[in-house]
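seq as requested:
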Amino acid sequence: MVTNSHSVLARWRNHFSQLFNVHGVSDVRQTEIHTAGALVPEPCAFELEMAVKNLRTHKSPGFVLIPAELIKAGGRTIPFEINKLFNSIWNKEDLPEEW
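struct tokens:
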């Protein structure tokens, strides 16, 4: 049975070093932590372009008050600019408060 704090810490260090395959680490605080990659890929321009193309016209614009007709009238420029905005938000991992 492990009772003193140094032995407890050593046992936990050993346990997690085996669990996470971190070999040769004497101080856990110095270990660089790598997380898994994104589970969902970054939004692509094609997906947004298809979503804009499939917008239903002559419908209520909702609370943002931008009608589908206006978005569609922007051609390829609007989906491109919206995609740049979405990717910026995606990469910063920070959703604007207004949203």
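The helical segments are 5-19, 45-53, 68-73, 77-92.
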